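Sequence in, structure out. Go.
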Amino acid sequence: MRSQAILICIAKALRTFGFGMVSVMLGMFLKDRGFSLPEIGLLISATLVEDAVLSTAISYYANKLGYKNILLASSVMVIVSGMVLGLAVDKIVLVSAVVLGIISPAGFEGGPFASIEHSLITFSAGRLANQSDLTRLFSLYNIAGFGGAALGALACGILIALFPGHANQAFPLVFFSYAACGLAMTIIYSFVEVPLFFSAPVKPVAKKRAANRIQLSKSDVQQKKHIWTFAGLQSLDALGGGFVVQTLISLWFYQRYQAGPEFTGPVFFWCNIFAAVSFFLAPVVARRWGLLPTMVFTHLPCSLALCALPFCPTALIAGVLLLSRSLFSSIDIPVRQAYTMLIVREDERVFTAAAVNAMRAGGQALSPLLMGLMSLNIVTGLPFILAGLCKSAYDISLFQLFKNEEVIEHSRALTELQSLQLESKSDESCERELVGSGRSSA
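Output:
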């Protein structure tokens, strides 16, 4: 199953390469096509809202639709989005492609890919995986993602630098490259084999009885409430992140310091490289501190650093601060993903990942909309301060609410679900025997 994880990591790198390219120049592209700044903010919000709703709906019906089918169909949507944006001129068509297609203004993730991949990666870790093993695997997964995003941002900066004074001529090349990434993803996902384990049904009665036997710490109702509490906190973190998505940061550099993609492209490249380096630290720190303390105490200083960004006098100093922040701000990502998978049972992981990703996308979607409603001009830097405050509130609340939470080791969670399935099969066998006995008596 480790080969499945490798394929998923390759697909992740290709996907984020495309997202990284598009996010750097999306704001400039829309402005060049005649969209105003409020309209650009509204488009970004609409894109993220659509992404949250679609990802949740698809993930909820993942077993019926088929995991592999969803991954393939989403890859085709990437191809369509890139081709339409590369060729279209009409504003209505452009709005439709940005909102209804799969585009990531944040430059890192979009679509229903992640919620399915997280569950597949957890399963591919094997029965003996523990917190450290799973954190290490998610670190590699995110290294691939941030590495791809870094190269995508750099590639976009290089492409635009090839057309000095005529950046709009490079826009179609960027979108066609994005479509090519979607084509490569389609080929890779065609080789991914989804284990039949995911689709095995479990009867509700048997599930409840088995849960009582192994004495799970929470009832189903409590577990769902627990999941949504965790997901709600994630939306607060994402709300802060939505004020400073890569597209808006790039636009801020352009308006505040007159620094275009030829400057921000390399900056985002090194930011993503530094973030990838931090993933190597994540398993080491998590093993020493534990999952939750690692998530909180590496993320909180980076949240506060956002508040200082508007006070940087030059683009160079602002870029250095972003680079310094990137070295620590992403340590929590693989740790959070492992933690999310380990606080619920195996049969709840796709739903949990979908709920968390949807709440994060929804929270991120509100930020540009709130900026417009509050008439926040990104040039003032106030969005960075709001982002830092939201993220700091998330860190403190997460620690207070979950500091006594117990994680479920992967081997234990897998044993639980297998017990549920065995008991379900046993019940079915008993029912067939009773029916057979009745017929014989008759």
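Check: The chain has one domain: 2-436. The two ends are 50 Å apart (CA to CA).
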